[in-house]
Write a structure and sequence with these properties.
Blueprint lengths: L2 H11 L26 E10 L6 E4 L2 E6 L5 E5 L1 E5 L4 E11 L5 E18 L7 E2 L7 E14 L5 E9 L11 E6 L2 E5 L3 E7 L1
Parallel strand pairs: 2-8
Antiparallel strand pairs: 1-2, 1-5, 1-13, 3-4, 3-12, 4-6, 5-6, 6-7, 7-9, 9-10, 9-13, 10-11, 11-12
């Protein structure tokens, strides 16, 4: 994509962007109640295996968000962590932004730029196998992060990414997946699975 075309895309995105894979390393421990403000919260966009009849959650999956007004989609991979008490966060992943006709607008990687909020929710991890942490550490919740996207051909763009995790017995709406507000786009959950693990 040439610079002029990216400037056009950037204004279309209002500020959009990119993503490539960043690994987050976290210390293990046992989950505790409340908002886990003194804990380390790991987030993952999950790969379910085997396909069709999953029994195991693994890191390395993707989630899709869709903008209702335009039909555009954004597909993200990603993992990271947040420490709510000091308002610290890190991580990242990759992205692909497509128009409703599936033509590609931009792709690249994103990095977490800051912590916004964390809300822990109750619920029971629903699969037999947890390939990311211990099932006892798994948690439902809602985590919002400031993120910066780096398109492969263009300037960085900032947005707010929210990771939604809802277990089958979690009270309230079944919001599962990712949402992303970036420029004029408001991508909401349109596919994929997420999970949090809460460590000391």
């Amino acid at each position: 994509m040439n610079p002029k075309k990216w400037l056009r895309v950037g204004s279309i995105f209002g500020s959009v962007v990119a993503l490539t894979f960043v690994v987050a390393v976290m210390a293990p421990g046992a989950a505790q109640g409340g908002q886990a403000l003194g804990h380390n919260v790991r987030w993952d966009l999950v790969l379910l295996q085997p396909p069709g009849s999953p029994t195991t959650a693994l890191a390395g999956g993707s989630n899709i968000g869709r903008d209702a007004a335009t039909g555009d989609t954004v597909e993200l991979t990603g993992s990271g962590n947040a420490i709510p008490a000091p308002g610290d966060a890190a991580g990242g992943g990759t992205f692909v932004h497509r128009h409703a006709d599936r033509s590609e607008v931009a792709h690249g990687f994103y990095l977490v730029a800051g912590f916004v909020s964390w809300q822990r929710r109750t619920g029971t991890f629903p699969l037999p196998n947890d390939g990311i942490g211990h099932a006892s550490q798994a948690s439902a919740g809602l985590l919002s992060l400031n993120v910066r996207f780096f398109p492969s051909d263009g300037s960085p763009v900032d947005g707010v990414l929210t990771i939604h995790c809802h277990f089958p017995d979690t009270p309230g709406p079944g919001d599962e997946g990712i949402s992303l507000v970036i420029g004029p786009f408001n991508f909401v959950q349109a596919g994929g699975v997420t999970v949090f693990h809460v460590f000391k």
